[in-house]
């Protein structure tokens, strides 16, 4: 695969290291693409978590594959077709109720490792275990880390589906401009606070001057917890309102008097 994509394994490894740098994997240096032990080939649990997060968030369909427990494979060769069965090496898929993946690995130097992903109540976590003495401890420690994470984490979400009142526009070809939220708001709390006390405040001008452009920022929704800001979402114009010209004012007067 490396030779097909990059022409050679060495060229592919260069791409791997470049991508690792882009992701902020400062403790990682690849020497080969197979992961087997060799001098200078190294990574860290944090870097594996960064790599796992990039994979699962950008390509969530990976979970469709890494959660398969058993599968029969047809191997076609010159001697004919033969069928053999594969079993997932990630035992958490069977042992841990919230498991969604992701990858196991083991070598003589690295020992037993796993990047374990799980989802519960809308919270997705990654637990990375490295250098476990055996595969049982690898999965036990991963389960403990995930349980700890789920016990500490709670998520507040606001889909921002409520309608916003239009803004008054002065000097425009129309008197108002419709506005919308740029998107939803999500906040992860690990301090045990009462997230039901989160407040949202709309910061919007009473009136704006034309022209205004569609998708420009009109204001923002600010979220606070215990009096401290925890995040915000931009509020955007839904439409463009051009500045009114003399001709526009004349037309308005005509319609007002002669309607």
Structure commentary:
The chain folds into two domains: 44-152, DD-peptidase/beta-lactamase superfamily (Beta-lactamase, 3-Layer(aba) Sandwich); 158-258, Peptidoglycan synthesis regulatory factor (PBP3), Domain 2 (Sandwich), CATH 2.60.410.10. The N and C termini lie far apart (73 Å). It is 28% helix and 35% strand. The strands form five sheets. The protein has a four-stranded antiparallel sheet with strand order 9-14-13-11, with no helix packed on it. A hairpin with a 2-residue loop joins strand 1 and strand 2 (80-87). 17% of the residues are buried. By secondary structure, the protein is of the alpha+beta class. The chain is elongated and about 90 Å long.
Topology readout:
Layout: H1 2-6, H2 9-22, H3 45-58, H4 62-66, E1 70-77, E2 80-87, H5 92-95, E3 99-107, E4 111-120, E5 123-132, H6 135-152, E6 154-158, E7 167-170, E8 176-177, E9 179-181, E10 185-189, E11 199-203, E12 207-209, E13 217-225, E14 228-237, H7 246-258
Parallel strand pairs: 7-12
Antiparallel strand pairs: 1-2, 3-4, 4-5, 6-10, 7-8, 9-14, 11-13, 13-14
- Distance, first to last CA: 73 Å
The largest beta-sheet arranges its strands as 9-14-13-11
In total, the number of domains comes to 2
CATH topology of the largest domain: Beta-lactamase
Radius of gyration: 28 Å
CATH architectural grouping of the largest domain: 3-Layer(aba) Sandwich
Question: Helix tally?
Answer: 7
Query: Can you give the helix content as a percent range?
Result: 25-40%
Q: Name the shape in a single word.
A: elongated
What value does the average pLDDT take? Answer: 93
The CATH class label of the largest domain is: Alpha Beta
Content of β-strand: 35-45%
